[in-house]
């Protein structure tokens, strides 16, 4: 029997769950119990979440942690992080503490320009198109005036519109390339509305508009965060050797794409966690960051390191198109709480905080990788997760942790050790 359904969105939440469990599960009661366990008893709050998307049947929890001790441009921050991967918050906190006694993170927002494009086809004479564009340019801006009015009051709006000839790459293909300043809002709706108004005004019989959409590639919405100290202040048994090895690890990620992807994934562990906690769009951030990592023609590290004249310097440069007003940042109570925790930052300040979280994460990963190896920390967390699942007491956890010190942790070995201890 077919499992396709018409008018699904019109069903009530209960009806949707019944349809789902009847058609796709054999253990209906158990599934309904699990789904309902995650409903919020506060009806208004549940309704708020239900309305974010379509066909909502329940909520999906992610842990919300905080990483204290971040000093960014001499100011203290506690950074909220939403992530399911163990070790990420611990690593951010440890590294923040480490750099807090070595001058903290120094950040600068390089630029805040966002981009959108009207893609169109035109078969006629290019000079005639240029003439039409130049005559139209002020009208194109005027066509957006009802949309840009409020943004202009906040100091934002359309920066420029240029005509771009792309016919060398695709026959008859041109663009209107539009640059925007959207201040503290991420600006996706604003940009797309402006582009559609521009396209409507620009349309002509011989101009076929294909689409109008913002770009998530934002190389001119760029932030830099840096840590530095004397090599000897890095601590440990042999700080010089550590600095050298650390620098080599970064240089490898600058030239070797297989390593660079994992290296950058570690950076995004930190960044995505703050993006999620603040109700920003993690898909947009991911897409933009990885595109930027490929801007020189091959994929490479987003962080860089230099050890020179006894100074260790480590920095990140990353595009981050963020919002601290509007969208989910205003709607989701936890996103609002996250922003309050950081003193209600402007979008540029949030760029600086996030870049620092990413840099901290990368520092933690490279420090572990170039010294003890990554599994050392992971094994401890893995062991704790298994022991928690088994319901071990803290005394049992201590005994079993001692037993597994320096050993590889497997689920079956831990269960065996736990059962032995119990007996
Ligand atoms: C794991 O989530 C992230 C790392 O693999 C990053 C890295 O290798 O640099 C540890």
Can you offer a commentary on this structure?
With 423 residues, the chain is of the alpha+beta class. The chain contains 16 helices and ten strands. The chain has helices at 13-24, 28-37, 43-50, 88-100, 126-142, 145-153, 188-202, 239-255, 257-277, 282-293, 327-331, 333-341, 347-370, 375-390, 394-404, 411-422, and strands at residues 64-72, 75-82, 106-109, 113-122, 157-165, 173-181, 207-215, 222-230, 303-308, 311-319. The strands form three sheets. A four-stranded antiparallel sheet has the order 3-8-10-9. A four-stranded antiparallel sheet has the order 5-6-4-7. A two-stranded antiparallel ribbon has the order 1-2. A hairpin with a 7-residue loop joins strand 5 (157-165) and strand 6. The longest helix has 24 residues, at 347-370. The protein is globular and about 85 Å long. (R)-mevalonate binds at residues 85, 262-263, 265-266, 269, 365, 369, 374.
How do the helices and strands line up, and which of them pair or pack?
Layout: H1 13-24, H2 28-37, H3 43-50, E1 64-72, E2 75-82, H4 88-100, E3 106-109, E4 113-122, H5 126-142, H6 145-153, E5 157-165, E6 173-181, H7 188-202, E7 207-215, E8 222-230, H8 239-255, H9 257-277, H10 282-293, E9 303-308, E10 311-319, H11 327-331, H12 333-341, H13 347-370, H14 375-390, H15 394-404, H16 411-422
Antiparallel strand pairs: 1-2, 3-8, 4-6, 4-7, 5-6, 8-10, 9-10
Helix pairs in contact: 1-2, 4-13, 5-7, 8-9, 9-10, 9-13, 14-16
Bound molecules: (R)-mevalonate (MEV).
The site of (R)-mevalonate has 9 residues, from α9 and α13.
